[in-house]
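Reply to dn_fold:

You asked what the input looked like. This is it:
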Amino acid sequence: EAAARGLPIALTLGSIALLFFISRRIYDESLALLATGIFATLPAILFIGRKPGYEAPTLFFILLTLGCYLNYRESNRSIYLVGLFVSLGAALMTDWPAYLLVPALVLHYGWYEKNNRIINPIVLGVPLFSLAMLCVFGFFSYLSDPQNIGSVVNQGMTYMGLIGTDSPLALRYTEANITFTPMQFIKQTLGKIDNLYAYPVPLMALFGAWFERNERDASRTLVWTLVFVALSYCVIFYRSVYIHLWHTYYLTAPMAI
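and this is what came back:
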């Protein structure tokens, strides 16, 4: 039990420290303390942050990537660029939400940097690196079992709603047999959000997003990359949002900030 939960707990504590660092760089120390306090006490963090699984490590590496990215943009030092690729690589090898960070980072960098030529360590390097890591993942999956790649694809298609109940694959992937109406999906999702965040927190986050809607500062708009990762992950794999409690976990960081 201790061995299984030790790593996710340690990485969740690391995410708390990283969120404070990122928030302080974006805003100031008082707001960073407030955001970190909210983040650290969210039921989603207290419950899922200690669960053996992919969520805690992936969020940690995503935040570490953003921290290195912030430092690289401000200092242009190669050490932070190396840190960005190392932490991004770890995230890409851990879970799929990290792949959604790639287009968000590239768009953010390309929007704000004057020297945003295609041949650039961020604009070109990050997408090529993510493609290489995907190939590495596929290679090792194939080595462990040649059937693994097809299984991963089919599982993803199941959560995307691309495998119908009448498909032969539904016999193997039981999640494909779970049906629900739009109203059932909304009710179930709102209930999970209430359990994991409590309604006042999402409402305050929506107010904060509205307040920041016209913000153009490069550091402060970086929060929208986290929003993009969390929301697009929920939209693409919408069936998993209905089935699993932890699928909205990646909303914790942007919601707190």
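The mean pLDDT is 90.
Hope that clears it up.
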